[in-house]
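Hey team,

Filing this mostly as a record. A colleague (T.K.) asked me to run one chain through the structure pipeline before their review meeting, and I want the input and output archived in the tracker in case anyone asks later how it was produced. No errors, nothing strange. Just documentation.

Input sequence:
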Amino acid sequence: MSFKEGLGKIADGVNDIAELNVRTFTGSISSITQDQKPSEMLAGLFTSGDIKVVGLSIMKIDGDIDQFFSDGEEATAELKDLHLKAVDAGAKSRATAFNLFSSAITKAINKLED
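Output structure:
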């Protein structure tokens, strides 16, 4: 791997862990889901489902957080609680990934210094 390719992989890693997005929906899906990957199913929600956003949270690596909760009747206390638990789990997962990533970068820099 060239130095340029290595930098590209580092940039991709930073972009991936720089923002956490948690979206919580309620509603129904009317598309056929057999043999679909979860990401394909989620994409189908927006074209063939009757869904409503209950919660949306965007956390950036610098600590900024944008958070939205619907004021509609579908945004029950239980769904809001589940959304907040997903945010917490996502934040913990990101912190672990960031620590692994920064450890790998530190080791790579230490090897360059040797």
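Quick notes for T.K.: Residues 3-113 form one domain. The mean pLDDT is 81.
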